[in-house]
Structures are given as structure tokens and as C-alpha cells.
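User: Quick sanity check before I run a bigger batch. Here is a single chain. Can you write out its predicted 3D structure?
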Amino acid sequence: MPEISGSTGRTPETHVIDFRAAEQLLNARDPRGAVRLLDSVIAAHPENTAARLLRARAFFAAAQLRPAELEFTIVLEREPDNAYAHFALARTYERRGLSDLAKRHFRLAAALDPNPQYLRHADFES
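Assistant: Done. Predicted structure follows.
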């Protein structure tokens, strides 16, 4: 019999299904639906960095920039070498008008991964 988490009646398998469905919702441009699914996944598995990163992306896509910033920051506390999280946090700061913070994270992303997009945004020339 599968283990059921808390009083929600949700199983680990259900959380995986919710995570995958949230990915699909984000790809289908329904970030708010993705966030709703991921809330229960993260409540049951707060240590799950992949779920937090996906929720951060969904918050960003929904223009909920402060929650996106908080989630990207949590991801980077756990994985300081995650170039994508640095880049996405930089984009979040950029949209919030925090250019100095954005530049710092664009440069960290490019230093960790020479992805052409990261390098373009890092603007090492200035």
C-alpha cells in the first residue's frame, strides 16, 4: 500500500504526477495553474529543489516577481553553482528595476556556464 502524506491523502506518486502536470501547464502558458499544483508538492517536499525551481519559473512567468525572487534565492542557497537559477534571478531583478543585482547574477551565470545567452547578458565589457 502506498504511503500517504499528512491528512491530504496524497501519495508520493501523486506529487510526481502534479510536478509533471505543472511542467505541462507552464509550457502551455498557464503559470498560475502550475503554481497551484506545485504548492502541494512543495508543502509535502520542501527540500525538493526541482519543484522550487519550477515554481520560481512559474511565478516569473506570472509576473509575480517577489515570490519568484524568493524561490530562486532558495534554490541558490541549496545549489550556488546553478547557472540557470542565477540567470533567472538576474532576469527577475532586471524586471524589478534592480540593475546592480541583476548584473551580479548575470555575471555569475556566465562564469558558471558559458552559454551564449548568459554571456550576452553578462556584459563583461563594461
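Residues 12-27 form the longest helix (16 residues).

User: Great, the batch can go ahead then.
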